[in-house]
Amino acid sequence: MSLKNVHVAFVLAAIGLCIMYGVQALQAFLDDPRPSSGIAGAAAVAAAVILGWYEARFLRGCREAGIR
Q: What tens digit of pLDDT does each residue of 19-47 get?
């Protein structure tokens, strides 16, 4: 498995985390509609989005440098 394939897997994992954290955050907020529930869920989703963005940027850099 090449380094690029590992980073593609990280991007897919980050997308999965976004979906999973989003569903859990919504469920937690619906169960207990306090602002802290929503903030904690939003922070988890934001962390997964940042991970996906970082990995996508790395892959774009690899493509521009000709790394396969």
A: 888 888 888 888 888 877 778 778 888 88
Q: Interhelix angle for 3-31 vs 35-65, to 10°?
A: 170
Helix H, strand E, coil C: the string for 17-48 is HHHHHHHHHHHHHHHCCCHHHHHHHHHHHHHH
- Number of domains composing the chain: 1
Cα angle 40, 45, 48; round to 5: 130
Q: What is the pTM of this model?
A: 0.65
Domain hosting residue 19, numbered range: 3-65
